[in-house]
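[Primary structure, fold]
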Amino acid sequence: MEVLIKPIITEKYTAQADTFNRYGFVVDKRANKLEIRAAVEKLYGVTVIGVNTQQYVGKVKTRNTTQGVAIGRVNRNKKAVVTLKDGDKIDFYASI
């Protein structure tokens, strides 16, 4: 099981990284806080102080097309907000 799926890079999470040293990740639905903490520390070489998780349910979406109404679902996912020790930083753009 791969714990970290991708980082969340939005204006909100970038502002939290600058102000509160918090970073957001989309994680596996079955991952717990201890697994998320270990994965971030191993992958980025930082010290994690806290992990907060949020589960989002998959919603049903409808849209009108020329062929009629299309109905689909958005996948459910789990997000983790990781707080790092003062002085630690994660640079998502370093490997580009």
Notes: The CA atoms of residues 9 and 93 lie 10 Å apart. The chain has two helices and six strands.
